[in-house]
Design a protein that fits this description.
alpha+beta; Double Stranded RNA Binding Domain; four-stranded mixed β-sheet; globular
């Protein structure tokens, strides 16, 4: 599973952040690993340098084998909270998508 992390110009993608987000993504999606080819995380600071509550957004998209991509987003006060929320939503969406395929 390939993990790509993209940020806007207000968020610095330093090595520690990339490593932390990569581990969080692998942990959250490990049970779907055989179905996922790549995961794209898009991080954005909605209000730029201003301090505003819930201004960190994460949009995460998983590209699944032989299926349409599945995506989810979450907005929170920190990057880690936004990523955790988006990954949780994505895991539920993938589980639902794979469950529908089994039912057919």
């Amino acid at each position: 599973m390939q993990i790509l992390i993209r940020t806007d110009n207000h968020i610095k993608a330093h090595d520690a952040l990339v490593e932390r987000l990569t581990k969080a993504t692998q942990h959250a999606l490990q049970r779907f690993e055989q179905h996922i080819t790549s995961v794209h995380l898009h991080l954005k600071d909605e209000n730029g340098p201003k301090d505003a509550p819930h201004d960190q957004r994460c949009v995460v998209e998983a590209r699944l084998q032989h299926r349409q991509p599945v995506s989810a987003s979450h907005q929170a006060t920190s990057i880690d909270q936004a990523v955790d929320g988006a990954l949780g939503k994505l895991a539920r969406a993938i589980d639902s998508d794979l469950g529908r395929r089994k039912d057919k």
